[in-house]
Amino acid sequence: MKEEELLRKRLSELADKAFTQNIYTYTHFLNEYEQSIYREMHRELSFADSHLEGGHQYFTRAFVVFGSEEMFGYQGEIPLACARVSPLFHKYADKLGHRDYLGAMMNLGIERHQTGDILVDGNEAYIFCFQHIAEFLEENLTKVKHTQVKTEIVPWKETGFQQKFLKKEGFVASMRLDALISLAFGVSRNASDGLFKKQKVFLNGKLLLRGDHKIKPGEIISVRGHGKFLVKELGKQSKKGRQFVVLEVFA
Questions:
Q1: Assigned fold of 165-250
Q2: How far apart are CA 178 and CA 175, in angstroms?
Q3: In this structure, which of 8, 109, 116, 119 has its CB flanked by the most CB atoms within 10 Å?
């Protein structure tokens, strides 16, 4: 059975369990493609209230929660936590990136589906994960690359993390998705077409296979391997009908 079929079966099983046993159920952390499958199934799973939880506004990885207070009459606990990782000695700390923190966790035997987003903020990082993983990290994550670190659990709703953006602006022939991807990441239209064929483009979390979709301000586009950007605002059109657009690329 293919992975997609296994995921669909698992989502149905968790929804049935929540509905029949009156208990909250949860998936592992899903990547964007897996979340897209959940969104496709949302209507057939609607008998069990569900939502995605990633811990912050612009999550990329998230898990599905089946159940709600309205459905059960009681509020369940979300098994989500956030581990903040910071250097013991800032003066001697390496400049660490997402891959460095992910590699350090993999070396501890943690699998990717057990953790959500890793948000790097200067010389600190916030790792969203399940509660038991956060407790494990607090005890065992003491080194990232060559940097000695301390890891502590912080309230996941109160990290204080502020998403940073790089402004990208310019004219596009139209508000087609492929044109905006070309502007955001500096890739050719041909290269942009290849991203759709490889199932790497998501609009507001939904997988898209063609680049002719018209985009509106406020929508978020994610391209695996390149990054994510928000369509911030539109400006005036040029005399030749080209549209001025302001994008905010996630830093």
A1: 3.10.290
A2: 8
A3: 116
- Say if domain 3-72 classifies as CATH 3.30.1370.160: yes
Alpha-carbon distance of 10 to 35, in angstroms, equals 13
Domain ranges of the chain: 3-72, 80-154, 165-250
Q: What is the pLDDT of residues 93-151, one digit of tens each?
A: 899 999 999 999 999 999 999 999 999 999 999 999 999 999 999 999 999 999 999 99
Give the predicted TM-score (pTM) of the model.
Answer: 0.88
Residues 154-203 pLDDT 10s: 999 989 898 999 999 999 999 999 999 999 999 888 888 899 999 999 99
Residue 127 CB coordination number (10 Å):
26
One-letter identity of residue 7 = L
